[in-house]
Each structure stands twice: as C-alpha cells, then as structure tokens.
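G., the chain you wanted modeled:
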Amino acid sequence: MMLEGKRLLITGVMTRHSIAYAVAEQAQQLGAEIVLTSFGRARRMTERAAGGLPTKPDVLELDVNAPEDLATVAEELGSRWGSLDGVLHAIAFAPSDAIGGGFLDTPPESAVEAFTTSAYSLKGLAASLAPLLEQSDGSVVGLDFDASVAWPVYDWMGVAKAALEAVARYLARDLGPRGVRVNLVSAGPIETAAASGIPGFERLAGDWGARAPLGWDVNDPSSVAGTICYLLSDLSRGVTGEIIHVDGGYHAMGAPLA
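Predicted structure as tokens:
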C-alpha cells in the first residue's frame, strides 16, 4: 500500500466533513499510522470525529501560534516514533473583520492575525518538526486556495493564502537540502465547517461546476485527499515547491464553459 509503514501528523480535523478527515481516513486505509492535533474547545469535536476513523488515533494539543505547543508536539512524536514521514498543515483563520467584503476597512491587527495563523504557521510547524522529518526524507503538505486571483469576499484570507504559497516555496528551498519536500494542494471549494464561515461561499461553490471541465462536487473531498496522500508518499519524492490544483480544472479555464 502507498503509505504502508508511514507515520503522519495531520492537523485540521474538526468534523467528519473536514478535508483533513478525508486525508486521515485515506491515509489509514493506505497503511499509515497517524496522529491528529487540535486545541481548546475544538479538541472535543476532533476527538469525536477521530472515533469515526478506521482506527481511532490519538489527538495532541497544538495551537500553531504557541511555540511551547510546537515544541511539545515535536518532543512527543520524537518519543513515540523517533522520526516522522509527513505532516499535513490544514490550518487557516481570519477574524470576521478581515473577510466578508470589508477589505479596505480591515485593521492591521486583524490582517496580521490572518497571516500568522494561516501562513506563518506553516513555517512554525515545518521548522519544529524538521529534525524528525529529515530522518525519513519526509513530506510537508499544506492546504491552499488559489491565490493567483482576487476572490469576492475572501479579502485578507486571500492575501494570507498568497503568503502561504510564498512560505511554502522558501521552505522548499531551505528544507530540500535536508531531504524534506514541501508542497501545497490548491483545492476547489468543499463544504466544511471552515467554509461555512466564509460569506458568499454558497455562490462561489455553486458556480464552480459551470467552469470546471471535470465538474465539481462540493461534498466530496476524496480527490483532494487522494492527492495529499500522494504527496505524503514516496511516489512524490522528486516533487517540492509545487502547488497542485485539485479543482476540477477550474483554475485553467478563462470563462464558464458553454
């Protein structure tokens, strides 16, 4: 199996509808051993979702903005496994005044919070786990949403995603010599708890299929999860600094299909 014997850390599982949940499920089915992370009040939801996986994994406390949490998770994984084969960064957040159409009125502290949690955290997570990842030529994968264009109401989260893409490239540069690859998956819109907090998401998702030549099912994250599992596997050993679009081909079309 593609991930047989792999040991993976997966962030971002909140409910069974999360993209990260689909990754966790497929990873286990492909032979991986996984550990999840969550923090605060959301941890109870993650624990509940974890119970629906083929094998219930442990859930570690991790606030990616807390250096002490990053250090504790790295220490725990080092004690548990000794090395790490891969990690999924599926973390993003923007305050309500940084998303929803008020781009020009967003205060700097809200824009900074969106950047810190959604982009800088990829560096924090990768750097803290690099000593474990380099022992197994590991893989860092992040969830992205196309930042090459401006989207309605996405505002400073879109800016944060552009920063995430830049962070991934610089991580690929600095971690590549240590045998660690870093890639992003730019997914089409999926109905998740996070998506429900984006004003206008329903309209965006509803129009997606009209422009995507392969069509798009907003309730099916399996194609996104499958690509992430590929990037976490040895099959992607020559790939780094890449953004793979899994969006039904939407990004490549200039207008809705006739």
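The helical segments are 19-29, 42-50, 67-80, 108-133, 155-175, 201-211, 222-232.

Shout if anything looks off.
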